[in-house]
Amino acid sequence: MMNKENEAWIAFDLLEEEEVGDRLDRVLADRFEDLSRSKIAQAIKRGAVLVNGESVKPSSPVAYGDHVDLDRVFFVKEEIKPEAMDLDLIYEDEDLLVVNKKAGLIVHPSDRVRSGTLVNGLLYLREKEGLTLSNVNGEERPGIVHRLDAQTSGLIIVAKNNSAHRILAQAFQDREVKKTYLALVEGDWPVEDFRVDLPIGRNPANPKKMAVVEGGKEAISTFSCLAHQPKASLLKVEIKTGRTHQIRVHLAHCHHPVVGDGVYGFRKQKIRTSHQMLHAWKVAFSHPRTGQWVSFEADPDPEFQQVLDKLGFPEAWKGSQCLNE
User: Fold this and answer.
1) Is the pLDDT of residue 204 over 80?
2) 196 and 185 in contact (C-beta within 8 Å)?
3) Across the strands, what pairs with 294?
């Protein structure tokens, strides 16, 4: 077993809903994309990975709140540097930030991507403006409580201290955070309201993708039509769970993929866009310090709005009734 006292170690807590219950080697393979699961399994077996201070097996399922220590000899990576960035900060107090993320902005670094992420921008604010950030999720993800896909725009909560981070992460885990999205989908959505309760897991044919699979993790999405026509439909989406690519996978399974989705969408896109038309529109939760229910909202970005205008849905997202155009 490695001598933890004599080595520099990376440390973080497992506070992300989508990781809970998964194999340790798979969770680490997702976090360290350039390392194969077999290499990570070797590191685990050699004691270079400790969970709650103990050696474990590669197949050990992770639990919410597990503390993980990694030996840098196996997991060393290039330093993440602060970068000046035009971040849309829509709210800030002593415990949290709410950021309206632009489509195309990756939330946190990976082994392949070390710059140009939201984290790089947050580190710049920490360096230049004294912004504090939680560190329970490790030095790779300071302040990051939850994620959005790179091509999804919209609201992200950032924790400024560890207490707020743990409370917010627990709220996500307990499904106490209300998340509402706007999704423009291919084709004419057939019903006004529709609930999808189908499990999501790794696609057996392509482990880099997710799919509706038997034995996957519970995933619940509710879709409400705001406007529709033969070419495309605008949906309000509420999710009860937070699985990887959940909305995109459920909509693709329903044969109405998100417009502009290059992974789960149709090969031939009928509507040309620079990013997928999925927007984290609203978020509401109990404030980690006061317990007061707070809510935030961000309008769709200009390109999303331009596409809606062309379809004849200029302000459909502001209403609650399904408009048949």
Assistant:
1) yes
2) no
3) 285
Give CA–CA dist 177/319, Å, rounded: 22
- CATH 3.30.2350.10 at 88-173, yes or no: yes
Per-residue CA distances from 57 to 16, 39, 44, 51 (Å): 20, 13, 7, 10
Task: Say what the pLDDT of residue 120 is.
Answer: 97
Specify the 3-state DSSP secondary structure of 6. Answer: helix
Q: What is the mean pLDDT of residues 314-323?
A: 66
Looking at this protein, which amino acid is placed at residue 248?
Answer: R
Length of the chain: 325
d(CA 81, CA 123): 7
Task: Supply the residues annotated as catalytic.
Answer: 149
Fold assignment, 4-75 = 3.10.290
Please check whether residue 262 is in contact with residue 248, taking contact to mean a CB–CB distance below 8 angstroms: no
Query: How many other CB atoms sit within 10 Å of the CB of residue 219?
Result: 25
Tell me if 210 sits within 8 A of 200, measured CB to CB.
yes
Report pLDDT for 323.
45
Fold of 178-324: Pseudouridine synthase (3.30.2350)
